[in-house]
């Protein structure tokens, strides 16, 4: 469904993403992990069309969309959430979600009906009339998810939707994400919460300092020495192994 080829993104002298490639098959939940500043959000920004890459190509459903602006990509079926959630504070939950629904429903009543349906799917059904500003962090994350889902995407890009949630809130939202996939939406998710990555993702790509350093099943990727070193520093994998050997 999504094919990202050799993307490089330079900001002045900084190379945020360097020759990164990944693909997402239809119907999958694929993870994108990596240390802070690795370039994950930058890659999402390029996939969604908010910024043009310095080099490389993005294909969606077999079509090259590299030159297409974000609103055309949204129409084609790509939606993203933002790592820093910013709901329209003056609008209530229903109106916030309807902003996404207007992409495919021009009439207010239709957009609101769609928003209500999406709200129920993400567990915000009882909050429809509340001001968005009154939601808890967990509520705002669900709202961010709902706004993207209301555009009726084929591919949903989730940028750390679980960040800032406590363990029980994470447990509650995992089945919501699974249900979205079961309804036919393909998902690419950036996530630091490894419990969620293990539970949800069939395949994981690892970005470190702008480069893809590993990919595979979540369990294999987490045991990969290159991945452990990217997170914990050079030699960490060897130290962990030596520690385990001396424990035994
Ligand atoms: N618009 C920009 N202009 C200049 N530098 C940028 C811009 N956007 C991102 N960067 C830089 O690019 C690098 C990658 O940032 P990015 O936000 O993509 O990382 P990330 O993997 O999403 O990190 P995190 O896990 O902290 O969210 C960082 O060094 C960041 O400061
Ligand atoms: Mg980020």
A few lines on this structure:
By secondary structure, the chain is an alpha/beta fold. It is built from 10 helices and 10 strands.
Give a description of the structure.
This protein is α/β, with parallel strands linked by helices and 248 residues long. It folds into two domains: 1-77 and 154-248, Rossmann fold, CATH 3.40.50; 81-152, no CATH class. It has helices at 40-48, 70-76, 93-101, 108-121, 137-149, 167-182, 194-200, 218-222, 225-232, 236-247, and strands spanning 2-11, 14-24, 29-33, 55-60, 63-64, 78-80, 155-159, 186-190, 203-208, 211-216. A six-stranded mixed β-sheet has the order 6-7-8-3-9-10, sandwiched between helices. The chain is globular and about 65 Å long. The model has no long low-confidence stretch (mean pLDDT 94). Magnesium ion (MG) binds at residues 40-41, 83.
Radius of gyration from the alpha-carbon trace, in angstroms: 19 Å
Domain module count: 2
List the total number of helices.
10
> For the record, what is the CATH homologous superfamily label of the largest domain?
P-loop containing nucleotide triphosphate hydrolases
Strand order of the largest sheet: 6-7-8-3-9-10
Kindly state the number of beta strands.
10
**CATH-defined topology of the largest domain:** Rossmann fold
CATH C-level class of the largest domain is Alpha Beta
Percent range for β-strand residues:
15-25%
